[in-house]
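Task card 7
Instruction: Convert sequence to structure tokens.
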Amino acid sequence: MTVMNTDSPKQQGVSLSVSGLRKSYDGIDVLKGINFGVNPGEIFVIMGPSGAGKSVLLRLLIGLEEPDQGKVLIEGQPVQSPDIPARYRVAMVFQSGALLTSMTVGENVGFYLAEHHLKSPGEIAKIVAEDLEQVGLKGTENKMPDELSGGMRKRVAIARALVVEPQLILYDEPTSELDPVSAVSIAEDIVKLNARIHATTLVVSHDRDLAFGIAHRIAVLDGGLIIAIGTPDEIKRNPDPRVQNFLTARIGQRLVPPADLQPAAPIPV
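Output:
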């Protein structure tokens, strides 16, 4: 995957700062003191193996849960402050897409605006059409989610996030359950949108190709701790064995030698 954003961000997003973040469940420490900052307009990817604490961290970043200790700040303001929604536009693209299956694509994308009566029906239709076109889904307003491929549903979820004109957009495992071609397409969408709308972009993923293909900077999360932060090149050169183990893990040889394979049983007639 080679869709690296080489353009400098134009600093129109918002800053995100995380300090001393801790979270435990039933006495088990999941996050053990997380510290990092994301610059306005940056594509920042948090990657790590399953069970590293990525999903818990994401819930804390968007204010769905409160940390046991530490702070999450948007432009210096606590993310759970009641005035955050009024001051800053934050959008989330969920791993599953979270589309409402009883609604059309257009209704899903425009749902937030319609539910809160923020625009007239005509204005909503125009915004929906524009945002679907931005993600390569022009003219799909009347389709139902189950008529779409997995990659298309992911792009509908991105279009839905765009309707609020986000200053900060967070993606949860955006390439999960996608074939390689669709994964590259989603990666390209993330980069193009970052260049176009200049929102601060935070991606949580275990997809190494995605991280190295799109990130300005990468944080590696392992065992509830950030063990490395840097540019893609800096992460690749990081000597920490935990980083290198994650980056180089692969199936390097046949686990079942061909000679050991058993012939298929005959089909009864």
